[in-house]
Design goal:
The chain has 10 helices and 7 strands. The mean pLDDT is 90. The longest helix has 28 residues. By secondary structure, the chain is mainly alpha-helical. Helices cover 55% and strands 10% of the residues. The strands form 3 sheets. A 3-stranded antiparallel β-sheet has the order 3-2-4. The chain folds into 3 domains: 92 residues, Arc Repressor Mutant, subunit A (Orthogonal Bundle); 40 residues; 71 residues, Arc Repressor Mutant, subunit A (Orthogonal Bundle). Bound molecules: zinc ion (ZN). The site of zinc ion has 9 residues, from helix 7 and helix 8.
Length: 230
């Protein structure tokens, strides 16, 4: 394709009738008489043999009519097939450099086309799966997509965070039950309780005790010994 932004050519006109036919036409269509005479006076006999550049404004001056009606009459003459009128063209122009092809005869490599289509579909499917699934670490999935298999989870993605929250919840419940069980048998200080439970996650255990005190499930006496609130 060629794109020509500054394309300009003047209006062209070619008289399709010979002199005799034109005279007959002028007699039969008096309203075009003035215009045809002006054309012949301005551009002469060349009109009969070639496409001739014309200026509508020049014609308008000669026939003493607005340029709009000159253009309109030229269009009418064109439609009556007296002249071939190609109005001025000032808009950008696209030229097809190669001959047009039938759509079903386009030189397309169908196998290659299908391969690329399938590849795109596979990519899209992988993207969809990545977004929709909620059980595999997202970082693992991405690495797997690029053929880098790993057993390590990232610990940062939403799947990892949700998994840890659920695990914590289980541990939390477990600590809670142990605290109640132990304190039901015997009142203890936090240190004694911690020693008895021996939690793998000490901070989480302290949080659990604190929350149970806040919820008034257990309480300190004046010697900082914990007991179950009945
Ligand atoms: Zn993760």
């Amino acid at each position: 394709m060629e794109f020509n932004e500054s394309f300009y050519r003047p209006s062209l006109i070619h008289l399709a009738f010979d002199k005799k036919k034109l005279y007959e036409f002028q007699v039969a269509h008096a309203r075009f008489d003035l215009l045809i005479k002006a054309l012949l006076r301005l551009y002469g006999g060349e009109l009969f043999s070639d496409f001739t550049p014309i200026s509508e404004s020049q014609i308008a001056l000669m026939v003493k009519q607005p340029i709009g009606s000159v253009k309109l009459e030229l269009d009418q003459l064109h439609n009556l097939q007296v002249v071939v009128y190609e109005p001025v063209n000032e808009s950008p122009k696209i030229t097809l450099v190669l001959a047009r092809q039938d759509a079903d005869r386009l030189p397309i490599d169908k196998q290659e086309f299908k391969r690329r289509r399938d590849l795109h579909l596979t990519k899209m499917e992988a993207m969809k799966n990545y977004a929709e699934q909620t059980h595999r670490c997202r970082m693992q999935l991405i690495q797997e997509y690029f053929d880098e298999e790993t057993y390590q989870t990232c610990g940062l993605c939403d799947v990892c965070i949700e998994k840890r929250r659920k695990e914590n919840l289980t541990v939390l419940k477990d600590y809670e039950q142990q605290v109640i069980y132990l304190l039901n048998k015997k009142n203890m200080t936090v240190e004694e309780l911690e020693a008895a439970v021996d939690p793998a996650e000490k901070e989480l255990f302290i949080d659990v005790v604190r929350e149970m005190v806040d919820a008034n499930q257990i309480a300190y006496d004046e010697f900082w010994v914990l007991r179950v609130v009945k």
